[in-house]
Amino acid sequence: MQGAGTIGIVGGGQLGRMLTLAAKPLGFHVVVINPSPNSPAAQVGAEEIVADLYDPKALRELAKRADHVTIEIEHLDAKALETISKKGTPVNPSASTIQLIQDKFLQKQALKAWHIPVSDFDAVINEDSAVKLLKRFGGKMIIKTRHGGYDGRGNMVVMSKSDIQKALKLFGDRQLYAEAIVPFTEELAVMVARSVTGQVATYPVVETIHKRNICIEVLVPAPVSPVVRRKAEKIATKVADLLGSAGTFGIEMFLTKNGKVLVNEIAPRVHNSGHYTVVANRTSQFEQHIRAIAGLPLGDTSLVVPAAVMINILGERDGPTLAEGIDEVLKIPGVSIHLYGKSPTKIDRKMGHITATSRTLQQARKNARNARKKVVI
Amino acid sequence: MQGAGTIGIVGGGQLGRMLTLAAKPLGFHVVVINPSPNSPAAQVGAEEIVADLYDPKALRELAKRADHVTIEIEHLDAKALETISKKGTPVNPSASTIQLIQDKFLQKQALKAWHIPVSDFDAVINEDSAVKLLKRFGGKMIIKTRHGGYDGRGNMVVMSKSDIQKALKLFGDRQLYAEAIVPFTEELAVMVARSVTGQVATYPVVETIHKRNICIEVLVPAPVSPVVRRKAEKIATKVADLLGSAGTFGIEMFLTKNGKVLVNEIAPRVHNSGHYTVVANRTSQFEQHIRAIAGLPLGDTSLVVPAAVMINILGERDGPTLAEGIDEVLKIPGVSIHLYGKSPTKIDRKMGHITATSRTLQQARKNARNARKKVVI
Predict the structure, then answer these.
(1) Least CA distance to A320: which residue of chain B?
(2) What is the pLDDT of residue B149?
């Protein structure tokens, strides 16, 4: 079939899978690059180029086959993506957006320059500069690697000179910066889409709950005041404009005790905190991303249910995947499950997620947690 | 990944495609039989056995690979399915359910025996018996082939002896029966699911609108009184019990001027009149079918929107598929589109569908019709 064209995705994991599931009904073909065969995306009909995500030859091949190139992960070769784009295949989000986000220090600087509220931060040059920052930030701060950190990796909370020494030793010669610790009451997130035409659409403000630095639970809508909600939405829209390129972006935020909303981090792609949109919203974040990068009009982002809670299904052991208890999960009213088809399972590997919808957030959360307990994976 | 198992589907068209899209997130593998490669189902990740649907070898191969065998079309070899089932692979709906439905005359007889209201009907043995029936049915009736008719094929309205002669000539030596014409005010449909455990769940009553005997529009919920709604739901539940086996079934009905609800026809499978459930209901008819045949608990069938209208995208010409106007469709609020990935396009071939959701049926219908006009296919 002609008409819609081909979407090329760098990465074929669960995000690539859900992007594929959204792209197919719109009439698109999908090709992904994935380091191993039978990726979650390939299992739902994406063609697969089996190669390292940094492989320039594979990226060229992807660009050759695709009308629109996009990503499901930001840890990749932004320069190679720029080359593709210069040769004529549109890449969204753009290489420069990805580059900006890859360097968390530059990301924070850009946000600050755009008058988007962020926590205090500064570069760590050496032990001395770190010790000075620790004093400035009140005796407690996080040292972070500028590149490559995720799910808490590449972060270390320090409270003393000896902590700083440990961090510098651990991170070796990697570029570092430090952030003041924000005494937040809640972590919030907003998915925001920006189309290649400049159209912007925000999703509801949600609360995210982390454990061991991994997002485990998302509450929709976030139990916050209308004032906070509007602040968060306004910030998300501003960030989308700042980034300039197209796609769906996850904006992670802190809500402080005195009602301030600070941006913590940006994901230049569909995001775990937006998985709920598949069952809870008129247009999912995945369909929205495809629409955004392909220049199609953005869809209605409103909720079709009063409340939803998403819970991740993280691997509980190392070994072949064996999902049990699904029948028990589906007995619970308003609960759905998505398993990503990954094998093997590993401790804390994202294997799937559960979404519960209900009339109240409280009931949805109760049902989601109850459902999660039934799954053995 | 282990755990869920493999679903085998006889047929890989749009219904197989949407069943596959629903089965994958639940952790199932999917295998389909389809006469040509790159079927709509294979495009979303179903493995494909390329063979005629009547090929007994292909059916045996399907049974070997699958834990649960099901169908997306009722025109197939019910006896071969029975053999598979006897050899140990569960087939749902069962071969006997399919056989009953394949013969429209037996279907009607069974409904009547179960005290489910149907229009007057009787077997056509020869010209004489047909002429007598025409008198009995008030001078106007439909002669139908007992087997193999769909979308109006195998049906002929007769009003005279010479019409009858024409019909008998057209249908040759095929087994026939005649039905009185029901002066209906609306055509209704209810999707109903019955699980292998006997659990039954009905979907909302919808109005279906046909053109050239093809379903073109579905209005959700049907604009009927609560009394009619309850009647239709009760009939659907009774039919599910009558059929006995598992799956999602489409029950097509007539609503008469004086408020009677008669069953017109049963589809022993997911059905065009239930496509709206993908965006409008908590659990789609496709996920429900997978749950039903795999012995998983049935899902919540309630609407998550006040109103929805589904419009089929039928091919407008013969030739390679070239879907245009999708961007115009997606501009309309609350409208989504599903293209089935079929090529070539043919006049009246089902190429995709549009679903519009809105606060009122009137608005949804306006948006759906407006959207349909934008598509060139």
Answers:
(1) B1
(2) 74
Residue A292 with chain B: CB contacts under 8 Å:
none
Q: Which residues of B touch A338 (CB under 8 A)?
A: 25
The sign of the dihedral angle between the CA atoms of A179, A184, A187, A190 is negative
Residue B203 has pLDDT above 80, yes or no: yes
Q: Does the beta carbon of B323 lie under 8 angstroms from any beta carbon of chain A? A: yes
Rounded (5°) CA angle A328-A285-B329: 115
Is B296 within 8 Å of chain A by CB?
Answer: yes
Residue A314's SS3 state is strand
- What's the CA gap between B74 and B15, in Å, rounded? 12
Distance of alpha carbon B265 from alpha carbon B225, whole angstroms: 22
Is residue A127 within 8 angstroms of chain B, CB to CB? no
A324 in B contact zone (CB under 8 Å): yes
Look over chain B and give the mean of its residue pLDDT values, rounded to a whole number: 95
B88 to chain A, any CB pair closer than 8 A? The answer is: no
- What number of C-beta contacts closer than 8 Å exist between A and B? 124
Strand, coil or helix: B343: coil
* A152 has a pLDDT exceeding 80: no
H or E stretch covering B8: strand B6-10
The shortest CB-CB distance from B1 to any of A291, A323, A330 is to: A323
Question: What per-residue confidence (pLDDT) applies to B186?
Answer: 96
Q: What is the mean pLDDT of residues A275-285?
A: 97
- Quick one: pLDDT at residue A112? 97
Task: Write out pLDDT tens, residues B232-241.
Answer: 999 999 999 9
- Residue range A363-375: mean pLDDT, rounded: 97
Query: Which of B3, B304, B341 is opposite residue A1, by nearest beta carbon?
Result: B341
Instruction: Phi first, then psi: give them for residue A330, nearest 5 degrees.
Output: -75, -10
In single-letter form, the type of residue at position B193 comes to A
Alpha helices in chain B (DSSP H): 14-23, 56-65, 78-86, 95-102, 104-113, 127-136, 161-171, 226-243, 277-280, 285-294, 326-330, 361-374
Chain B residues touching residue A342 (CB < 8 angstroms) = 1
Chain A contact for B199 (CB, 8 A cutoff): no
Side-chain-side CA neighbours of A17 within 13 Å: the count stands at 24
Residue A331: its chain B contacts at CB < 8 A? 297
Q: What is the rounded distance in angstroms from the CA atom of residue A269 to the CA atom of residue A289?
A: 8
Q: Which amino acid is at B74?
A: E
CB A31 within 8 A of CB A6: yes
What's the whole-model pTM score?
0.95
Question: What amino acid occupies position A114?
Answer: W
Asked whether the predicted pLDDT for residue A2 surpasses 60, the reply is no
Share of chain B above pLDDT 90, in %: 94
CA atoms within 13 A on the CB side of B238: 16
**Coil vs helix vs strand at B109:** helix
Distance to chain B for A163, nearest Cα, Å: 43
Q: Is the pLDDT of residue B3 over 70?
A: no
φ, ψ at B351 (rounded to 5°): -95, -20
**Residue that the structure tokens 């020494």 belong to:** A165
Three-state DSSP at A281 gives: strand
DSSP string, A139-199: S-EEEEESSS--TTTTEEEE-SHHHHHHHHHHHTTS-EEEEEPP-EEEEEEEEEEE-TTS-
Can you read off the two tokens belonging to residue B328?
Answer: 């115009």
Radius of gyration of chain A (CA): 20
Q: Give how far A150 is from chain B: nearest CA, Å.
A: 26
Residue B112: predicted pLDDT: 97
- Nearest by CB to residue B27, choosing from A323, A333, A336, is A323
Contact B25 A338 (CB under 8 A): yes
pLDDT digit string, tens, across residues A22-47: 999 999 999 999 999 999 999 999 99
